[in-house]
Specification:
The chain is α+β, with helices and mostly antiparallel strands. The protein has 6 helices and 10 strands, in the order H-H-H-H-H-E-E-E-E-E-E-H-E-E-E-E. Helix content is about 30%, strand content about 30%. The strands form 2 sheets. Strands 5-4-3-2-7-8-9-10 form an 8-stranded antiparallel sheet. Strands 1-6 form a two-stranded antiparallel ribbon. The termini are far apart.
């Protein structure tokens, strides 16, 4: 009888051990709580591209976030010297649509800006004023009455301009010019002319005049 009782107790003990080993909290070294199991499962199911930097220790790349990096800022284009063949051609091309053509009463050009007077369309006896700066032509408003022949900027040989400026620097008696500009109009010659002016910081000034082809037709040195 005693041996039967002992055998029964042993069987119950073994069954208890088996149940304890097979319980979810101790199966194969798994987590001790259902909440831990759920966290592990969620991490395994979440794609790497959707995990936050706090979880992965790294910043997401543009490919992961679906965004492109902002383009690097480009440097501003350097301004064109208007007192060059290319600068004059660009000036005339930009003025044309704003003025409604290439005819002017006068045009004064500095290295970085220009001022023009152009006849009003349909009214050849009056003109409007325009300015050109930083590649933009702007109408300023009414000018006055036309008192000299109108000239066409398309008929000038702008390739001759560098040589005219060199001659002005060399032949007009201004040793150290600090200012250079040109005036295009028909005030000096009825067919139109380019007047090239040079002056220094003490206001010594001279100019030469050339016809539309670039041929020098007059010189007026400083102090002359």
């Amino acid at each position: 009888m005693t041996m039967s009782i002992a055998a029964g107790v042993a069987a119950v003990s073994v069954a208890a051990v088996v149940v304890w080993v097979l319980s979810p909290g101790h199966r194969g070294g798994a987590s001790e709580s259902p909440a831990a199991d759920r966290r592990t499962s969620a991490a395994e199911e979440t794609p790497a591209t959707e995990r936050t930097s706090a979880e992965t220790g790294t910043e997401p790349t543009p490919a992961q976030t679906g965004t492109e990096p902002a383009p690097a800022e480009t440097e501003d284009r350097e301004p064109v010297n208007l007192l060059t063949p290319a600068g004059m051609r660009r000036l005339v091309a930009d003025l044309r649509p704003v003025m409604g053509g290439t005819q002017v009463v006068d045009l004064t050009v500095y290295p970085t800006y220009a001022i023009a007077g152009a006849p009003v369309k349909g009214r050849k006896t009056v003109y409007d004023r325009y300015t050109y700066r930083d590649g933009v032509a702007t109408k300023d408003g009414p000018g006055s009455t036309v008192s000299k022949p109108i000239v066409d900027l398309r008929k000038y040989n702008w390739d001759a301009l560098p040589a005219l400026i060199r001659r002005a620097n060399r032949e007009l008696g201004v040793k150290k010019p600090t200012t250079r500009y040109i005036i295009v109009d028909a005030a000096f010659h009825e067919t139109g002319a380019i007047r090239v002016y040079v002056s220094d910081e003490y206001h010594a000034s001279g100019y030469l005049a050339a016809d539309p082809t670039g041929k020098v037709i007059a010189k007026y040195p400083a102090g002359g």
